[in-house]
């Protein structure tokens, strides 16, 4: 079962993205002009999305993919255009409504379904690939691993996700953020130690048979996020390429 800390934080994220930040997020994920700070975040997210898509097969025809925390749907659309059957889910109804509005009608042989809900819901079925771009960055590393294990139970191929790597700058930003009244700040991004995360993944029974694959840090101005690939396979199987710091 998801932990109480996960459920509490999930509620905060739903409120923030569905109400407080819906308009700002809509602008950030569009072509609308934004501030220089947000422009760096947009550029970082664009590069991260391209990186994760680059770790997926070029031809996804016949594959089922879960976009966990899809936001306004940019990654989901690209995966569907490659032929995937995409289930795109997010906790924020406002973002899902915007994603549906922006979704193109002609996706070729691919298909795309947007849903409001929880990425761990077993009713979503099974998948070949799962992508969670910047959707678990608000959770403690212990909760992130629990989420991964729940998703892994229904995934046959790979899980690609991002987390906020613990750096001196992010640690300071996280600490300073705690001084603001709760109503005046977004749900905090939780910096995670890559070493600690790897240890938790290795110790998680629900991730037995899964192995670390590629990793890539993307930094653009005010955007810093680390991509990590998990691959299902027998012990000692190739993990898909070298890791990058």
CATH class: Alpha Beta
**N/C terminus separation:** 32 Å
Order of helices and strands: HHHEHEHEEHEHHEE
Biggest beta sheet summary: 7 strands, mixed
Mean pLDDT: 88
| DSSP helical segment count | 8
CATH architectural arrangement: 3-Layer(aba) Sandwich
Strand order of the largest sheet: 3-2-1-4-5-7-6
Radius of gyration: 17 Å
Q: What structural class do you assign from the helix and strand content?
A: alpha/beta
DSSP strand content: 15-25%
Fold-level CATH name: Rossmann fold
- Which stretches are poorly predicted, pLDDT < 50 over at least 5 residues? 176-185, 236-245
Number of strands: 7
Produce a short descriptive summary.
The chain has helices at residues 4-20, 22-28, 36-54, 74-81, 93-102, 141-152, 168-177, 194-203, and strands spanning 64-68, 85-90, 111-116, 127-132, 155-163, 210-220, 223-232. By secondary structure, the chain is α/β, with parallel strands linked by helices.
Can you give a write-up of this model?
With 245 residues, the chain is an alpha/beta fold. It has one domain: Rossmann fold, CATH 3.40.50.150. The protein is 38% helix and 22% strand. The protein contains eight helices and seven strands, in the order αααβαβαββαβααββ. α6 links the parallel β4 (127-132) and β5 (155-163). Mean pLDDT is 88; it is low at 176-185 and 236-245.
Question: Any descriptors?
Answer:
about 240 residues, alpha/beta, Rossmann fold, seven-stranded mixed beta sheet, 8 helices, about 40% helix, Magnesium protoporphyrin IX methyltransferase, Mg_prot_MeTrfase, S-adenosyl-L-methionine
């Amino acid at each position: 079962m998801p932990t109480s800390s996960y459920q509490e934080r999930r509620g905060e994220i739903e409120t923030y993205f569905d109400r407080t930040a819906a308009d700002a997020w809509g602008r950030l994920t569009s072509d609308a002009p934004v501030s220089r700070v947000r422009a760096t975040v947009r550029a970082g997210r664009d590069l991260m999305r391209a990186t994760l898509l680059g770790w997926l097969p070029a031809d996804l025809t016949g594959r089922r993919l879960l976009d966990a925390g899809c936001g306004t749907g940019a990654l989901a659309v690209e995966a569907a255009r490659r032929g995937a059957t995409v289930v795109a889910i997010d906790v924020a109804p406002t973002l899902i409504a915007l994603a549906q509005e922006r979704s193109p009608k002609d996706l070729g042989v691919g298909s795309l379904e947007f849903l409001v809900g929880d990425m761990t819901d077993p009713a979503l079925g099974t998948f070949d690939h799962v992508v969670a771009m910047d959707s678990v960055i608000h959770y403690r590393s212990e909760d992130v691993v629990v989420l991964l294990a729940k998703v892994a139970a229904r995934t046959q191929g790979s899980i690609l996700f991002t987390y906020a790597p613990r750096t001196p700058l992010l640690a300071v930003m996280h600490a300073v953020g705690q001084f603001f009244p709760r109503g005046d700040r977004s749900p905090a991004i939780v910096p995670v130690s890559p070493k600690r995360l790897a240890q938790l993944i290795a110790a998680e029974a629900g991730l037995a048979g899964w192995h670390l694959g590629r990793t890539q840090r993307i930094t653009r101005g005010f955007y810093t996020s680390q991509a990590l690939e998990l691959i299902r396979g027998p012990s000692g199987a190739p993990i898909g390429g070298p890791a990058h710091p």
